[in-house]
Design brief:
mainly beta, five-stranded antiparallel β-sheet, four-stranded antiparallel β-sheet
Amino acid sequence: MESVLLVMPNTNKGVTLRTDDYGGPCLWRKIDVPKSLLSEKGFAGDMRIGDLDGDGKIEFVLFRSIDGGMKPCFIGAFDSDGRELWRHGAGGDQPQRPGPVTVYDFDGDGRAQVLCFFIDPAVNAPANDMDNVVIQIRDGLTGKVIRQAAPASMRQCTGEGANWVHQRLLVANFRGTKRPQDFVVKLGEKLLAFNKDLDLLWTYQIRWNEYGRCSAYIPAVGDIDGDNRDEINGGFYILDDNGRPLWEGQIAENMDSVAIVPWDNGNMRAICSGYGHVLDGKGKVILRLGKELVPHGQEVRVADFDKSLPGPEMIIRYNGHNPNVMVVANSGKVIRRFQLNYSPNHTGMEAVYWNGKDEAALLYNGGVLWRANGKKFASLPNLPRPVGPAKMGWYHCIAANVCDDEREEVVLYNPWDKYIWIFSPEPMRPAAFDGYKAGPRQYNPRLMD
């Protein structure tokens, strides 16, 4: 129930650092999850971050589920000093995948709320349907339910297998409001979009659901057409803000990872791991690496990884659950291939702006930071080997600026463990920190593809 501050930050003001001055990673803080929030078996569960009380510091929300991991039955919150803030529900197992909980400030008052599914104890239902699940928005500071809904369109959803267990709530802007105030969830064969009042906006029925040939398990949101409203990229479809398809097509196997990000000359594109595709907003192919180069596109991340090249690059895990990756310029040229370190399940890559937004991003994988030239930048010091099942007990990474200057830290958690690890670039500059500010990479983290 305590946080251990392992680095004494330098509080000198007015220090200008060159890129070469940026040092390696230091363990800024190891946080013990409060014992009162742990499961009976001693693990914490899935985790998200956000500013729950508006003080400019991150807090943590954890949850556990029943019925295979999609129905949260316990949720709690604690601060960065390891103090419990609140808890609701009881019991629960480790979710099979990062699940249906996110932390976001819907009303814009500086204090984030918690958006989540939660079990309805008054209803008995099989494990593979949603008949006993409600959507909730909870006050971040107290955990009390602000709003709750159980629309029939959600309760009617059923499913099984890999396409069912990936359930993630993604914050979006479908109505052109000043800030995102909507969200979407994919439940097997269906997408459902809601506003912050939990009114159903629209639904979309996915046509392709066969294992290995289904659309993206976790879709991505972003404004691909520049109308200040978000679209959805599911790999085999691009939906407009009203849920109507701008394009549909089954273009590749293993459409495991997708994004909507700037790609060529700042143009927003749909990035799709299956065969290494880049599409425009209406499905026109901008880039196709093909099956020979990308037989199984497991994960793809896009960032400015190489400052010697114009614009961003993609790093794609091109052969399934393996450590092999390739770096691709936005011209379509494959720059290099290399092998990442071993990590359980071989998923969980994340781009990290370790040296700030104006410098080349690093790639996190399994406790190691990599440069895009294929050389290891650093292993994160004193990080224990992960505990838990081989394919699930590993360190998920959320990249965020949580304690220092404009450079990003990595916030790590293993759902089967009971600690949070935060690593920061040296030297520390807390005087330059103006408070934690969440963006899409924090409230819509990929975590696993």
